[in-house]
TrEMBL record:
InterPro entries on file: Aldolase_TIM, FAD-bd, FAD/NAD-bd_sf, OxRdtase_FMN_N, YqjM-like
Name of the protein: Bifunctional salicylyl-CoA 5-hydroxylase/oxidoreductase
Domain FAD-binding as annotated: residue spans: 134-329
Transmembrane segments: none
SUPFAM superfamilies on file: FAD/NAD(P)-binding domain (SSF51905), FMN-linked oxidoreductases (SSF51395)
Domain NADH:flavin oxidoreductase/NADH oxidase N-terminal: 397-731
Source organism: Lentzea alba
Gene Ontology MF annotations: FAD binding; FMN binding; NADP binding; NADPH dehydrogenase activity
Family annotation (Gene3D superfamilies): 3.30.9.20, Aldolase class I, FAD/NAD(P)-binding domain
Pfam family, one: FAD_binding_3
Length: 793
């Protein structure tokens, strides 16, 4: 790229580092930085880096990296203090330094390279800068004026969170990363602490806003810029006197804040681009703010160096960087939500609590921790077995579980998956092979697809049913095979399609109406599922009685067929689910309105089915814990719904989400539905909880179970990919207690091979000779084994 005039708004780590990188790549670049504060003004205390980020900085600028390294505080342990016990987990690998020192080093680096920096100077209007410069970089933080100037283009979403926190420092030099979890009369408070030099540590105090108010921190007083809340600081000194052990805490513009998660639909416009907190934020509990900003700068400089024109470079930057940032934000969101709900876990056994805390973001897992600290992993395994009253210590997924009166050999469930392959509702040889292979694959419980209670209750013409004796007898053949050829149990999922019925087979157009041969759809209200969906007929009392009777008749046939368990399908927008959702149910009678009213018909069906289902066989319920749309059901409604079904005798709640409306906007990600199961498990005693959704590895399953987020895990597509997934998971973990079919035992010992982990993004700064500089910056995906050191979260 030819020499450019570059304007950088914001003199924080991201802005200064980008300016320095561009001058290194080509000294002819004219780079100017505007910073509204003085050079010696900064807020906060220490900043944390992962070894991976430091490797990128070293490759890009060895001189600067060496200067940083001489000032680092390094440590490898995490100490968790909870309920009078302290637990240490090793093998982590952290580096931190004073934020003020980092800014000083970057300022000096910019001076040495010839970057012009205007301190104590607000930047000119962003529009004027764009007209005067070849490139404008908005690096002006979470309250970015650059972003606000073009908000109609960037379309920011600002999510203010529920916890209050205050950033402080202390002269107590910690030897490791510290989590102090303090139970007070007002609720749970926590401290995140870590050393950043040989003379000080960061000391972040955090608590839910409700706890903050009860503790009297809400004075209504406003503090001017640069001023600290001295009253609150003094109170914190008193509250955490034991943790501070006679040492002081120091303020630096320290006042109560609420974290805001920033997301933008776009990061660039014309010759203007956002980096760091102006573009995105990630909660401090995974230590990623400065890290993300400096990695943004690396990636942006690389793209500008590699592409001839600015627009192409900015497009490439956003395409490369966005997936990495969004992945980090998902992890940060999980972490911040965990801390918002920390009081929910306060009663956990200490070892489980520590494991739960460490794996809260779903990036660190059981396998990660075992690699880093096998002794701690052994303690986690032993604590789990003891909590379950089990004599044998084994992988959590292979520990037995009693669901009602049904004994399951392990905690793996083959999730219900519609196959759309029946003829007139009759399951055939396909279903025998499909379900039989999954049962022989080692899972403790195999679930049928949604079995429909009537022809009008089908989703598609290919759905199975239980409204005839012929269907019952065909199901009995499949159940008999499972019982005779495996030690798995088999469960029946019963449901009615409601307003999502009369559609094409999935591979012909999911949720699209049939071109011909349609049947009437019904629902609680005359509201279609989505654009193009038929308008359902609103059910009256006679209709509800008829459908309830159809559920009862189907349940009787299922019992005769020999199913071990029955699941009532109240999720995914089908009939009973649509009664539960305020999006689909807008009735004005006693079956609509409040959550209690919306529960009325699903509970009537549950009670009627429970009355005819054999008492010794468990009955469970699948729910959608959130509708993923405004004004729909939330996790709070899910708790009430789960509590109601549990009170009526449900042995387990199978926690899924969404599919209630075509307008949904799910927050997809690794194990993204598990937090809903976690909340129900901790707030609704009396029923087991099943987690489902983007659980793809045995490591995920073990991590969920060991942390206490669920009692069982259901996996669907994983079993489509590998019908013998559970047996293979046993072999991978060298667990010899799995129940291999005698015909397959010769393959039960997997030969040694390299373990393959999921691809994860990694910053790799590669050198290559160029005419001007021996520097080449690039983002590359990296496939490797378990990382030897990563930052917590």
């Amino acid at each position: 790229m030819a020499a450019k005039r570059i304007a950088v708004v914001g003199g924080g780590p991201g802005g200064l580092y980008f300016a320095a990188l561009m001058k290194q790549l080509d000294p002819a670049h004219d780079v100017t930085v505007w910073e509204r504060d003085a050079p010696d003004v900064t807020f906060g205390f220490g900043v944390v880096f992962s070894d991976e980020t430091l490797g990128g900085i070293e490759n890009a600028d060895p001189e600067f990296a060496d200067t940083m390294a001489r000032r680092f505080a390094r440590w490898t342990d995490i100490d968790i203090h909870h309920r009078g016990e302290s637990h240490t987990v090793g093998g982590q690998g952290f580096a931190a330094m004073s934020r003020k020192e980092l800014l000083g080093l970057l300022q000096q680096r910019c001076r040495d390279l010839g970057v012009v920096v205007h301190f104590s100077t607000p930047a000119p209007d962003a529009g004027l800068l764009c007209a005067s410069y070849d490139l404008v970089v908005g690096a002006d933080g979470v309250n970015s004026l650059v972003r606000q100037s073009f908000s109609d283009v960037f379309r920011p979403a600002l999510d203010r969170r529920h916890n209050k926190y205050m950033w402080l420092g202390t002269d107590l030099v910690f030897e490791a990363f510290q989590f102090f979890i303090k139970d007070t009369e007002w609720g749970t408070m926590q401290v995140h602490g870590y050393p950043y030099s040989d003379s000080g540590s960061t000391f972040i105090v955090e608590m839910h806003e409700d706890v903050w108010r009860r503790a009297g921190f809400d004075t209504g007083e406003e503090f001017p810029p640069g001023a600290s809340d001295d009253r609150a600081v003094e109170r914190i000194r008193e509250l955490f006197a034991e943790e501070l052990a006679g040492h002081q805490v120091f303020a630096n513009n320290s006042k109560w804040l609420s974290f805001t998660t920033v997301r933008n639909e776009r990061w660039h416009h014309g010759n203007l681009v956002l980096v760091g907190d102006a573009a995105h934020t990630a909660h401090f509990s995974i230590g990623s703010g400065t890290k993300l900003a400096m990695e943004d700068s690396l990636a942006l400089a690389a793209c500008l160096h590699e592409h001839r024109d600015v627009e192409t470079a900015l497009t490439a930057y956003e395409a490369e960087r966005r997936p990495v940032v969004e992945s980090t934000q998902r992890a940060a969101q999980a972490s911040l939500e965990w801390f918002e709900n920390i009081g929910m876990y306060a009663g956990q056994e200490p070892t489980r609590f520590c494991f739960n805390l460490l794996t809260r973001s779903r990036r660190i897992t059981y396998d990660n921790l075992r690699t880093r600290d096998s002794d701690f992993a052994d303690r986690v395994d032993a604590a789990f077995a003891a909590s379950q009253g089990l004599a044998e210590v084994a992988p959590a997924m292979f520990q037995p579980f009693r669901l009602g009166s049904l004994e399951l050999k392990n905690r793996v469930i083959v999730s219900p998956m519609d196959m759309y392959s029946a003829v007139d509702g009759v399951p055939g040889d396909f279903h025998l092979v499909h379900l039989g292979s999954k049962a022989m694959g080692g899972a403790g419980l195999v679930m049928t697809e949604m079995v429909c209670v009537s022809p009008e209750g089908r989703i598609t013409p290919g759905c199975t049913g239980l409204w005839t004796d012929e269907q019952r007898d065909s199901w009995a053949r499949i159940v008999s095979f499972v019982h005779s050829r495996s030690t798995a149990r088999i469960g029946l999922q019963l449901g009615h399609s409601g307003r999502k019925g009369s559609t094409r087979l999935m591979w012909e157009g999911m949720d699209e109406p049939l071109p011909d041969g349609n049947w009437e759809t019904v629902g609680p209200s005359a509201l279609p599922y989505g654009p193009g969906s038929p308008v359902p007929r609103a059910l009256d009392r006679d209709d509800m009685d008829r459908i309830k009777a159809e559920f009862v008749a189907a349940a009787r046939r299922g019992a005769t067929a020999g199913f071990d368990l029955l699941e009532l399908h109240c999720a995914h927008g089908y009939l009973l689910s649509s009664f539960l959702s305020p999006i689909a149910n807008q009735r004005t009678d006693s079956y609509g309105g409040s959550v209690e009213n919306r529960l009325r018909f699903p509970l009537e069906v549950f009670d009627a089915v429970r009355a005819v289902w054999p008492a010794e066989r468990p009955m469970i319920v699948r729910i959608s814990a959130t509708d993923w749309v405004p004004d729909g059901n939330t996790e709070h409604d899910a708790v009430e719904i789960a509590r109601a079904f549990t009170a009526h005798g449900a042995d387990a709640i199978d926690v899924s989400t969404g599919q209630v409306t075509a307008d949904e906007r799910p927050a997809y990600g690794r194990s993204y539905q598990t937090p809903f199961a976690d909340r129900i498990r901790h707030e609704v005693p009396g029923a087991a909880v099943i987690a489902v959704g983007a659980i793809a590895s045995y490591d995920d399953v073990n991590s969920i179970l060991l942390a206490g987020r669920a009692d069982l895990c259901a996996l669907g597509r994983t079993h489509l990919y590998d019908p013998h997934w559970t047996l293979h998971a046993a072999a991978e973990q060298n667990y010899r207690g799995a129940d291999w079919p005698v015909q397959y035992r010769a393959g039960s010992r997997k030969p040694p091979s390299a373990r393959t982990d999921a691809v994860r993004p990694r910053l790799s700064l590669l050198r290559a000779d160029t005419p001007d500089r021996n520097v080449h910056l690039r983002w590359t995906p990296h496939r490797s084994g378990v990382a030897q050191s990563v930052n917590i979260g």
